[in-house]
Each structure stands twice: as structure tokens, then as C-alpha cells.
Specification:
With 596 residues, this protein is α/β, with parallel strands linked by helices. The chain has 25 helices and 17 strands. It has 3 domains: 105-273, Rossmann fold (3-Layer(aba) Sandwich); 281-483, Rossmann fold; 500-584, no CATH class. Helix content is 43%, strand content 12%. The strands form 4 sheets. Strands 10-9-8-11-12-13-16 form a 7-stranded mixed beta sheet, sandwiched between helices. The protein has a 5-stranded parallel beta sheet with strand order 3-5-4-6-7, with helices on both faces. A 3-stranded mixed beta sheet has the order 1-2-17. The longest helix is centred in the middle third of the chain and has 21 residues, at 278-298. The two termini are 19 Å apart. Bound molecules: oxaloacetate ion and magnesium ion. Keywords: Metal-binding, NAD, Oxidoreductase. A divalent metal cation binds at residues 255-256, 279.
């Protein structure tokens, strides 16, 4: 965001910025600051002559080298993360130039997985506050606080908001979760070229149930347990109403909500606002991209797949829904397609007898009583509701424990003989050697995606899965993993992380000003990503590399905008869609700064 003293001008002579600021006010504005790259004329006009060393660098190059050396001087990933965000506080252009040049190296430090560590250690990390902090204890202040951001109705393309109940796979982090909104927006810019000065990170603080935070004197958020029910819904409504009023052109992105709220919010607003839930729709779609390529490489039909999903929360059911919808595109009825998907969670296989205990969106996948009656039950320990983030699932597990046990993942895999196994459980090492080998014994090329974030929560590592299946499995993961070398083949591990999908989707929505984000637009994005993966040679990744995020995102944006136009949802008339996407993209280059 630019200070109120600056204006961006885009005309025939390109992009430039005018400002009434002078001296230190220019250097202290990270959107204006160019450091040694201010020209002699700019220094004179802006009052910078005495404030900068005499050397004038006309390009980013020497600054990039200095910044990269400083980045490497930071001893740990967390320190590198802090360095990057301090650089952002100082010079937004240099931050993105460095990130883009070393995308594979720095993206995991700025974003997932290191952003998780930063959120857990927020008091060490917090520097200059960035974004808008909205709190449920002051619901009448929502619009005024959003207006404090200082932007006009034409100025904002995108808001990312989180209530931080389920950050990545690490749970409830209250107001510290502002960093997930900030991190997601950085990916929008680095990956797709969304203008970083036209976005707003938002935290919707409704309290936290994280005892550690509630007892931490340094905690920055609202010190109260999570508020639910009508007050919560009214607060979300106040946010959507204010955001639509103040920034009528913007898309509203939802990130890392608890699964019930995530679903409810999306169904409430999806038909009447330009809005998108990344963990349900973005994760579902990027996993679908990987699966489209994996299933094609197995040479089998979509209507024959048997899918086991371990972890039936926001991401797991989001993925199930995308797979079901794809099977329907291939000719199955919705109920037939749902029959080909088995959800397993704390209570084991989700079954129809669990009825009331299940969440409404899990129910279409619950298995019939006749089907499950003969299956073996494994004794298990109950989990006290107070000791879990998922009390409903824990209650069902306790009920099953009392009745002889659960139908566990190993039993489900042995019985169902899945062709596809997906992990969104946030519990590491659950895809054991026994389970993976039993799957591989029944399927020529098992498709196995351990997705839980951050890295240490993955259900198995790619090395384990490829070793246990003798290189036959098709693997994609949630966090980045190194290549695996096995029997003379190098396996590149595709990252089925929503970072490859939502930035391009968002750009397509922004360019077309789509009035809503339709399932067709999301499917178009999934297909566009799949189409960017490398050719199907042995060991080739199922997904495009994150090194090519800019290209992937541009292709996605074009397909999404075209779909919006075809469906009559575009509010901006677009002639040449490719050109419109290209024109809209922001690049980290210095532009002239004029004193006015
Ligand atoms: O942020 C990521 O890397 C993926 C994601 O949305 C999550 O795990 O919640
Ligand atoms: Mg997320």
C-alpha cells in the first residue's frame, strides 16, 4: 500500500510514481524506497542528496547481491524469514526481486513451511504491523478499521482474511495468524504478479483456544476463548459487507478457518460475492491437477478409481468433492461417484451409523452399514474432547472405542484396495510401510499424496513411499521435498500446494473482475496447472515446478478469465485476454519517482 502522499501513474510512458513526500519520508516508505538506485535528478528533487551515499546504481543488481549475501548470513530458516520481512519493511521491490530470482530457495522460507514456525514464535518475529486487525470485541468498528487502511474504492484488488483457527496443520494461533494472510499475499505477487500495493491482509480475531497464547503476556490478540454462533456470523457478515462497500472490485480470499466455519462462510457468500476458500477449493483443485496427470500416467479410467482420504477436515473433504465432481464429468451419478471415495479420520472409516456425529459435508461419503459390518475393528484409546482440536471426531472415536474399536486405515486400505491414497490428517508417519506395501500389492501404480503441512507432519516421505513401492508409486506432497534417486531414476516430487493454483486463479478473477468464482473457473485452473507439468518421462513430476510459478500462473489466469467471460460472470470487458493478463501483472522493477 502506498502512503497517501504517493500516486501511481500508468500512461503511454509506462509506470511511474508521484509523491509529495521528501527526505526520510521517501526512504522510509517501502513502496517508494529504491536506496542507492535513486537517480541524481530524483535525489535532488526529493531532498535525498545528503541521505544517500554518493554511488548511484541504476539497476537492482548490486542491491540484489548484497541482499542475497545478508539472507545467507542469517543462521537459521526463522532468521532468514525475519530478514526477508525486514527487507519488505524497507523496500518492497527488492524483496520481490530477490524472492523471484531465488523462488525455489526462498519461497519455503517466506511462506510454507517456515511461515508456520514464524507464527508459533510470533513475538520474536513481529516487526512493523502490516495489514488490518479486526476484532470481534469491537464489531461496530469493522468498517472504520478497514477504512484506516487508507485505500479508495478503486485501489484494492484482493483481500486475504483468516480467523487462524486452523493455520496450516498447526492449529489455532489467534492474531498471530495475520502472517498467513501476509504470506499468502506475497505468493500472489511472486507467483502471479498481483500488484502488492493493491492488496489487504486481514486477521479476523475471534479469540483463541490456544492456552499457550492465552497465558502468554506477549500475546498480541484478543485474550478470550473463541467466540462462536451468531456473534461470529455477524462479525463475518460485518467484514464482508464493509469489504464489499469499501473495495467493490476486490476478491475476498478465506484462509485457514476451522472446517465448519470455512464451509458455512463459503456457502453463504459464494453466489453473491467474488470469493474463494483456498483450503477447500484451492487445495482441492491443485490436488486434482496432480491426480489428472497421475491417473493419465496409469492408463486407467477415472470412473474406476477407488480413493481413500485420510483426514476428513477442510482440505480432505474439499479434495473429495473435486474428485467426485470430476467422476461426474466422466459420466457417473453423484452418488455413484461418492461411493468410490472412503474417508478415514480419528473414528476410523466414516460410516452411516455415525450419522449425527458427522459434519454435514462429511455425510455424503459415509459408508453403508452392510458394507462395513464384516470389517475388522481395531481396539483404540478414546481421546478426551478437551485434548483435541476436533471434538466431534474425538467423540465418535470414543464411542467406537467403547463398541470394540475402529475400522482403521490399514483395514480400509487392505479391504478397499485403493488406487489413490491421500493424506490430509496432520498426523505424521501414518502411511506406514505395511499400508503402502499392501496398497502396492493390489495396484500396479499406486497414487499416494501425503499432503499435511508443514513438512514434519507429512504422512510419509517421498523416499519412503518410492522405496516401499519400488519406484512404482506416483507421489506428490504438500510441502517441498528434494528429488529422490532410486534404482537409477531421479524422481522429481511435485508439490501439490495451493500456491501453484490460487495466485493464477486470483489474477484471472482480478483481470476479469468476475462477480463470483464458479466451479468451472476452478476446474479450468486445475486443468491449466496440470497442462504445465513436464512430459511423462520416468520420474517426471506430476506438477509444474515452483521455479516456473510465473508461467503457470499466467496460463491459469488466462483460462480462468476466459471461463468467467464464457459464463457471463466477467464485469470487465476484455478484448485480448492474454494481453489483458500480461498488462495487469506487476514486476519488481524500479520505476521513476517524481516529486510533486
Ligand atoms: O499454505 C499452504 O502451504 C497450504 C495451505 O493452505 C495449508 O496448509 O493450510
Ligand atoms: Mg491454508
Amino acid at each position: 500500500m502506498f502512503s497517501r502522499q504517493a500516486k501511481v501513474i500508468k500512461d503511454g510512458s509506462g509506470r511511474r510514481i508521484t509523491t509529495t513526500a521528501r527526505g526520510y519520508d521517501v526512504l522510509r516508505d517501502p513502496a517508494l524506497n529504491k536506496g542507492t538506485a535513486f537517480t541524481k535528478a530524483e535525489r535532488a528533487a526529493l531532498g535525498l542528496d545528503g541521505l544517500l551515499p554518493p554511488v548511484v546504481t541504476t539497476e537492482l543488481e548490486p542491491q540484489l547481491e548484497r541482499a542475497y549475501a545478508a539472507y545467507h548470513a542469517a543462521p537459521t530458516d526463522l532468521q532468514k524469514h525475519i530478514y526477508m520481512w525486514r527487507l519488505h519493511d524497507n523496500n518492497v521491490t527488492l524483496f520481490y526481486a530477490l524472492l523471484q530470482r531465488h523462488m525455489l530457495e526462498i519461497l519455503p522460507v517466506v511462506y510454507d513451511p517456515v511461515v508456520g514456525e514464524a507464527i508459533e514464535n510470533y513475538s520474536e518475529v513481529m516487526t512493523r504491523p502490516r495489514g488490518v486487525f479486526l476484532s470481534i470485541d469491537e464489531p461496530q468498528q469493522v468498517e472504520a478499521k478497514l477504512a484506516d487502511f487508507g485505500a479508495g474504492p478503486e485501489d484494492i484488488d484482493l483481500l486475504v482474511a483468516s480467523d487462524a483457527e486452523e493455520i496450516l496443520g498447526i492449529g489455532d494461533w489467534g492474531s498471530n495468524g495475520i502472517d498467513i494472510s501476509i504470506g499468502k499475499l506475497a505468493v500472489y505477487t511472486a507467483a502471479a504478479g498481483i500488484d502488492p500495493h493493491r492488496v489487504v491482509p486481514v486477521i479476523l480475531d475471534v479469540g483463541t483456544n490456544n492456552e499457550k497464547l492465552l497465558n502468554d503476556p506477549m500475546y498480541i490478540g484478543y485474550r478470550h476463548s473463541r467466540i462462536r454462533g451468531k456473534a461470529y456470523d455477524d462479525f463475518i457478515d460485518a467484514y464482508v459487507t464493509a469489504a464489499k462497500k469499501l473495495f467493490p472490485k476486490a476478491m475476498l480470499h478465506w484462509e485457514d478457518f476451522g472446517s465448519t466455519n470455512a464451509r458455512r462462510i463459503l456457502s453463504r457468500y459464494r453466489d453473491n460475492a467474488s470469493t474463494f476458500n483456498d483450503d477447500m477449493q484451492g487445495t482441492g483443485a491443485i490436488v486434482l491437477s496432480g491426480l489428472l496427470n497421475a491417473v493419465e500416467r496409469t492408463g486407467t479410467a477415472w470412473t474406476e478409481q477407488r480413493v481413500v482420504i485420510f483426514g476428513s477436515g477442510t482440505a480432505g473433504v474439499g479434495i473429495a468433492d473435486q474428485i467426485r465432481d470430476l467422476m461426474v464429468r466422466h459420466g457417473l451419478k453423484p452418488e455413484e461417484a461418492a461411493r468410490r471415495i472412503w474417508l478415514v479420520d480419528l473414528p476410523g472409516l466414516l460410516t452411516a451409523e455415525m450419522k449425527e456425529g458427522l459434519l454435514d459435508y462429511q455425510r455424503p461419503y459415509a459408508r453403508d452399514e452392510q458394507e462395513v459390518a464384516p470389517l475388522q475393528r481395531t481396539p483404540c484409546e478414546p481421546i478426551p474432547a478437551a485434548e483435541t482440536r476436533w471434538p466431534k471426531m474425538a467423540a465418535l472415536r470414543s464411542a467406537a472405542a467403547a463398541k470394540g474399536g475402529i475400522i482403521d486405515l490399514a483395514t480400509v486400505v487392505a479391504t478397499v484396495k485403493p488406487t489413490i491414497l491421500i493424506g490430509t490428517s496432520t498426523t505424521p508417519q501414518q502411511f506406514t510401510e505395511k499400508i503402502v506395501r499392501s496398497m502396492a500389492a493390489a495396484t500396479e501404480h499406486p497414487i499416494i499424496f501425503p499432503l499435511s503441512n508443514p513438512t514434519e507432519l507429512h504422512e510419509a516421505t517421498p523416499t519412503q513411499i518410492l522405496t516401499w513401492t519400488n519406484g512404482k508409486a506416483f507421489v506428490a506432497t504438500g510441502a517441498p521435498f528434494d528429488d529422490v534417486k532410486l534404482n537409477g531414476v531421479t524422481y522429481a516430487i511435485g508439490q501439490a500446494n495451493n500456491a501453484a493454483l490460487y495466485p493464477g486463479l486470483g489474477l484471472g478473477v482480478v483481470v476479469s473482475r468476475a462477480s463470483m468464482v464458479s466451479d468451472e473457473m476452478i476446474f479450468a485452473a486445475a486443468q491449466a496447472v496440470a497442462g504445465q507439468a513436464p512430459a511423462a518421462t520416468p520420474g517426471a513430476s506430476l506438477l509444474p515446478s515452483n521455479a516456473d510459478l510465473r508461467t503457470t500462473s499466467s496460463m491459469v489466469a488466462v483460462e480462468v478469465a476466459r471461463t468467467a467471460i464464457r459464463q457471463g460472470l466477467a464485469r470487465e470487458p476484455l478484448g485480448d485476454v492474454v494481453e489483458a493478463v500480461r498488462q495487469s501483472q506487476w514486476w519488481p522493477v524500479y520505476v521513476p519517482v517524481e516529486a510533486v
